[in-house]
């Protein structure tokens, strides 16, 4: 029998080869990540450290100093120190959230996933690459900018009564720039704002700034914006090892959530449907207002109907958009435009009663309250009998409000 003897590499050479291989892999990895920095970091669950979240802020200020990034909070963040970042709070694959303070206000400084397709402002305004850097001093450029911002906002929200709501195109820009006075914008300010409004949460927050149940926005720098910091309702949840929040505090939050559901039926953008109702997306502000802190998935009726209508279907189960649900028309194999769920029903189901098996805000109530609340809550939370008959929203709202207010008085 013949045995072929493989020649072994000498130990030293083996070590050199391995080291070289590791170096090549490392360099390759570095090149890929440096090309694709922003995309890669959102592709999976990262920790704040892995995300190099703080480095993002250092880069933000470097870009501001170089004149490549703008916004009405850049100076406070990068130069005057009036915006102070303290901690990295959340670091999901889509979002980075820091906590901090801005002029004595507790804030979060957050950014969300960049949309897949973003048109460059230069292209939108048809400015050639060979042109000098455009500035707001150029009146033509500024006028075009104001028009395109207005146009983008109304298309993004499918809200074509925008002009009636605010008066003029220029006023949309003033709203987006709020609470800072709109002075002369640099090109960096304009292009950063343009990139920011591709993420529609910022637009909605600013257009709805007069609403009680929408958190205040304090401005932005690059793709980060500062919002009033609140205590999330997720923090109210209790486990066998964690005691529930005091009943009175839960009662107040529940009452204000009812108020929120009412306010959302009539807003400057018409009726709003919140399709991602969960304790982590709502919070209690310092002045005890309950606010919707994550409004990516909150839509006006027309936009909601357009979303629901799109897919083809064979059964009702295929006609939902997160929490917002319509029915399948099996003759046409098309989801109906009519939304079956409503905000109050989902709030009852996923916040007041329970959320993914976790006890809800009104669970573990004192026994006398529980007896009164249980039937109303289970009627409210039920997925059957949707859509509710006319008047049912008002009826359930009143019943819950009466029980909770009476409880509040007697506690
Ligand atoms: N204004 C805020 N105050 C306090 N915490 C916030 C605020 N905004 C966001 N957070 C925290 O960050 C988390 C993620 O933010 P969110 O806007 O819900 O992003 P996502 O769209 O990724 O869910 C929230 O669940 C909450 O814990
Ligand atoms: Mg969220």
Bound molecules: adenosine-5'-diphosphate, magnesium ion
Low-confidence stretches at least 5 residues in length (pLDDT < 50)? Answer: 1-9, 29-43
Tally of domains:
2
What is the overall pLDDT average? 89
What is the number of E strands?
16
Question: Going across the major beta sheet, what is the strand order?
Answer: 1-2-3-5-4
For the largest beta-sheet, the strand count, sense and barrel status come to: 5 strands, antiparallel
**Helix/strand/pairing category:** alpha+beta
Strand content: 5-15%
Distance between the termini: 93 Å
Outline: globular
How much helical structure, as a percent, in the residues? 40-55%
Number of helical segments?
A: 16
Radius of gyration: 26 Å
Transmembrane segments: 12-32
Main location: endoplasmic reticulum
Protein name: FAM69 N-terminal domain-containing protein
Membrane topology: Single-pass type II membrane protein
Would you mind describing this structure in some detail?
The chain is α+β, with helices and mostly antiparallel strands. It folds into 2 domains: 176 residues, no CATH class; 173 residues, Transferase(Phosphotransferase), domain 1, CATH 1.10.510. The chain contains 16 helices and 16 strands. Strands 1-2-3-5-4 form a 5-stranded antiparallel beta sheet, sandwiched between helices. A 3-stranded antiparallel beta sheet has the order 6-8-9. The protein has a two-stranded antiparallel ribbon with strand order 7-10. α7 packs across α9, α14 crosses α15 and α15 packs antiparallel against α16. The radius of gyration is 26 Å and the shape is globular.
């Amino acid at each position: 029998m013949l045995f072929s003897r493989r020649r072994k590499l000498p130990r030293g050479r083996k070590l050199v080869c391995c080291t070289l291989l590791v170096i090549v892999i490392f360099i390759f990895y570095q090149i890929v990540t440096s090309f694709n920095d922003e995309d890669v970091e959102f592709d999976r669950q990262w920790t704040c450290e892995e995300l190099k979240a703080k480095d993002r802020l250092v880069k933000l200020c470097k870009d501001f100093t170089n004149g490549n990034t703008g916004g009405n909070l850049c100076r406070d963040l990068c130069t005057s120190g009036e915006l102070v970042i303290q901690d990295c709070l959340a670091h999901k694959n889509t979002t980075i959230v820091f906590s901090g303070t801005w002029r004595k206000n507790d804030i979060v400084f957050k950014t969300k996933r960049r949309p897949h397709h973003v048109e460059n402002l230069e292209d939108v305004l048809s400015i050639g690459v060979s042109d000098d850097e455009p500035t707001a001093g150029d009146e033509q450029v500024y006028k075009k900018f104001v028009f395109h911002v207005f146009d983008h906002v109304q298309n993004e929200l499918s809200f074509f009564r925008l002009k009636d709501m605010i008066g003029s195109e220029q006023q949309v820009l003033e709203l987006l720039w709020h609470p800072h006075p709109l002075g002369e914008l640099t090109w960096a300010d304009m292009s950063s704002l343009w990139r920011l409004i591709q993420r529609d949460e910022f637009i909605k927050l600013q257009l709805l700034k007069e609403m009680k149940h929408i958190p205040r926005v304090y401005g932005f720098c690059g793709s980060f914006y500062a919002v009033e910091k609140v205590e999330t309702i997720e923090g109210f949840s209790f486990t066998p090892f964690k005691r529930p929040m005091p009943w009175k505090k839960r009662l107040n939050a529940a009452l204000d959530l009812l108020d929120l559901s009412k306010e959302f039926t009539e807003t400057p953008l018409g009726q709003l449907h919140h399709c991602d109702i969960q304790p982590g997306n709502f919070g209690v502000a310092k002045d005890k207002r309950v606010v919707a802190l994550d409004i990516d998935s909150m839509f006006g009726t027309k936009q909601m109907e357009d979303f629901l209508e799109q897919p083809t279907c064979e059964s009702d189960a295929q006609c939902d958009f997160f929490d917002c649900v319509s029915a399948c028309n099996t003759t046409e194999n098309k989801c109906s435009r009519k939304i079956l769920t409503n905000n109050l029903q989902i709030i009852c189901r996923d916040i007041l009663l329970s959320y993914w098996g976790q006890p809800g805000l009104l669970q573990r109530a004192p026994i006398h309250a529980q007896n009164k609340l249980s039937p109303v809550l289970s009627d409210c939370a039920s997925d059957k009998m949707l859509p509710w008959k006319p008047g049912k929203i008002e009826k359930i709202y009143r019943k819950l409000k009466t029980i909770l207010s009476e409880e509040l008085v007697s506690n």
